[in-house]
UniProtKB/TrEMBL annotation:
<dbReference type="GO" id="GO:0009507">
    <property type="term" value="C:chloroplast"/>
</dbReference>
<dbReference type="GO" id="GO:0070006">
    <property type="term" value="F:metalloaminopeptidase activity"/>
</dbReference>
<feature type="binding site">
    <location>
        <position position="311"/>
    </location>
    <ligand>
        <name>a divalent metal cation 1</name>
    </ligand>
</feature>
<feature type="binding site">
    <location>
        <position position="311"/>
    </location>
    <ligand>
        <name>a divalent metal cation 2</name>
    </ligand>
</feature>
<feature type="binding site">
    <location>
        <position position="280"/>
    </location>
    <ligand>
        <name>a divalent metal cation 2</name>
    </ligand>
</feature>
<feature type="domain" description="Peptidase M24">
    <location>
        <begin position="92"/>
        <end position="317"/>
    </location>
</feature>
<dbReference type="GO" id="GO:0046872">
    <property type="term" value="F:metal ion binding"/>
</dbReference>
<feature type="signal peptide">
    <location>
        <begin position="1"/>
        <end position="19"/>
    </location>
</feature>
<keyword id="KW-0031">Aminopeptidase</keyword>
<dbReference type="GO" id="GO:0006508">
    <property type="term" value="P:proteolysis"/>
</dbReference>
<dbReference type="Pfam" id="PF00557">
    <property type="entry name" value="Peptidase_M24"/>
</dbReference>
<keyword id="KW-0645">Protease</keyword>
<protein>
    <recommendedName>
        <fullName>Methionine aminopeptidase</fullName>
        <ecNumber>3.4.11.18</ecNumber>
    </recommendedName>
</protein>
<feature type="binding site">
    <location>
        <position position="255"/>
    </location>
    <ligand>
        <name>substrate</name>
    </ligand>
</feature>
<keyword id="KW-0732">Signal</keyword>
<dbReference type="InterPro" id="IPR002467">
    <property type="entry name" value="Pept_M24A_MAP1"/>
</dbReference>
<keyword id="KW-0479">Metal-binding</keyword>
Length: 377
């Protein structure tokens, strides 16, 4: 096909214009060639993803409050409540989301060849409990780990295990924390070592799609505008937008209405000031179906092509949206914790008091979360 296509394009005896039917045929041939080359590169670069050994669930200290679903193996139903917050609720949401953002960035710094996703889970778990928070995925519907790690063709909900990251992998790390009764949820796809250009572009465009969706948000805006903006942009690159997984309302409840569709849709409803929800599109290198493994969590692309995902929790304002998990500014402000009646004996991680207490407890993990909120114990 390559020789035929290049030969036709280089023929001096067959001039072609963009309006010519032959041009459209050649363009289609080139698209098919590009598709086959990408599939070939993917298949040669790495074998299909396989599950490694999953280690035991990590313990959480008794003094850390747990979400109500912990202890049940039943997947909670999506709450019909739209979570709209007063000023105190917004303050607590900001605190939870900023902690999640910090944990995610620190987890991403661990991504390199030979590191296992189980090691990332262990580090994330320790960072979260050191901050006096609970890792929201742990025990949610029986999920056995504290973070989701989705590698290469895994779309989402990957369970950390003994598999080592390889040069050329991509990995989405999805962090959710439960702090002072509120969940903060965010994810990002990280690049491990040297990744080929087509996968690099997929990751970049997926992040751009998330921001396209966020740009549609403000008080009174239609929810369906989010999916339209994401789809319009993704399709310019020939990418698939996964329609099986959605964003969701979040706050004191992990998953609630509104459900946020990232593909084109006719969903009714408008956004309301004070409302919080996630936008978390998943894009695939080519449109494909989903396959869920027997663990009932890990979901991969049916054609084996890579998938990328990015996620932010946002707050609807009168004129737009505040990105609560914005990683460009992840340090706590002291004003975030003033006037919260449920928080007592507040301290900052990194203080000499906290280091001394952790040393006395035999803690070996040195956290980078210098300004994360924690409750003294």
């Amino acid at each position: 096909m390559l020789g035929l296509t290049l030969g036709l394009l280089s023929s001096a005896f067959w001039p072609i214009t963009t309006g010519d039917r032959r041009f459209r045929v050649l363009r289609k041939l080139m698209e098919l060639l590009d598709y086959e080359l990408q599939k070939s590169m993917i298949s040669k670069r790495r074998p299909p993803l396989k599950r490694g050994k999953v280690s035991q669930r990590l313990p959480v200290p008794d003094h850390i409050p747990q979400p109500p679903y912990v202890g049940s193996q039943v997947l909670p139903e999506i709450s019909s409540n739209h979570q709209i917050h007063d000023s105190e609720g917004i303050t607590r949401m900001r605190a939870a989301c900023q902690l999640a953002a910090q944990v995610l960035e620190n987890a991403g710094s661990l991504v390199r060849p030979s590191v296992t996703t189980n090691e990332i889970d262990k580090a994330v778990h320790q960072m979260i409990i050191d901050a006096g928070a609970y890792p929201s995925p742990l025990g949610y519907g029986g999920f056995p780990k504290s973070v989701c790690t989705s590698v290469n063709e895994c779309m989402c909900h990957g369970i950390p295990d003994s598999r080592q990251l390889q040069d050329g992998d991509i990995i989405n790390i999805d962090v959710t924390v439960y702090l002072n009764g509120y969940h903060g949820d965010t994810s990002k796809t990280f690049i491990c070592g040297n990744v080929n250009n087509s996968v690099n572009r997929l990751v970049k465009v997926t992040e751009e799609c998330m921001y396209k969706g966020i740009s549609a948000c403000e008080d009174g805006a239609l929810f369906r505008k989010i999916g339209k903006r994401i789809s319009d942009y993704a399709e310019k690159f020939g990418y698939g937008v996964v329609d099986r997984f959605v964003g969701h309302g979040i706050g004191t409840i992990f998953h609630s209405e509104p459900l946020i569709f990232h593909h084109r849709n006719d969903k009714a409803g408008r956004m309301v000031e004070g409302q919080t929800f996630t936008i978390e599109p998943i894009l695939t290198l080519r449109p494909t179906e989903c396959i869920t493994w027997e663990d009932n969590w890990t979901t991969v692309t049916a054609n084996g092509c890579p998938a990328a995902q990015f996620e932010h929790t946002i707050l609807i304002t009168r004129t737009g949206a505040e990105i609560l998990t914005n990683r460009a500014s992840v340090e706590f402000q002291e004003s975030m914790v003033i006037g919260l009646p449920a928080i007592e004996n507040v301290m900052w991680i990194g203080s000499s008091c906290h280091r001394a207490k952790r040393a006395a407890m035999g803690a070996s993990f040195t956290t980078k979360l210098r300004y994360s909120l924690a409750v003294d114990w």
